[in-house]
Design a protein that fits this description.
Elements lengths: L2 H18 L2 H12 L6 H28 L3 H22 L4 H8 L3 H9 L5 H28 L1
Helix pairs in contact: 1-3, 1-7, 3-4, 3-6, 3-7, 4-5, 6-7
Length: about 150
């Protein structure tokens, strides 16, 4: 099995778990619809898609930290610190002067997710999340390859 297949297999399993978390939401929407509720499925779809893409990027980050460390707790802690850093980045973007603030907010996943939650499908945000996931998956693959070289 190649290093690429190892990384992508683990990532595929993580994405399947993330997708399974949406099943209770679908059941709830079905029940609400049966009871006569009016649901804007466009907003539900875009918000769900945005949340899935956000989760996919975060899972790729966690997979990278898992590939660099031997300890699961350390990988979880590093992932948490990076996600907190992204949250602080958005907060800092509001405090610094305008050109710097806009630059900082461009790297915040929360800023890109906000449009999805409003029902807006923004191609720039989709590319942001897919690029972030691809970048961290690339780093994870390189980390696995490096571990194999060291023997």
């Amino acid at each position: 099995v190649s290093d690429f297949e190892i990384v992508m297999g683990k990532y595929g399993a993580l994405l399947a778990q993330l997708a399974a978390l949406f099943l209770p939401t679908l059941a709830t929407l079905g029940v609400l619809r049966l009871l006569g509720g009016k649901i804007d499925f466009g907003i539900v779809f875009t918000a769900s898609l945005g949340f899935f893409l956000l989760g996919a990027a975060y899972l790729a980050m966690g997979l990278f930290f898992s590939s660099v460390t031997e300890n699961q707790m350390l990988a979880g802690g590093l992932s948490f610190l990076l996600l907190m850093g992204f949250w602080i980045l958005e907060w800092l973007a509001g405090l610094v002067p305008r050109p710097w603030g806009e630059g900082l907010s461009a790297f915040s996943p929360f800023v890109h997710y906000r449009d999805f939650s409003l029902g807006i499908l923004d191609l720039q945000a989709v590319v942001f999340f897919l690029s972030a996931a691809a970048f961290f998956l690339f780093l994870a693959q390189r980390a696995v390859e490096t571990r194999n070289w060291k023997g």
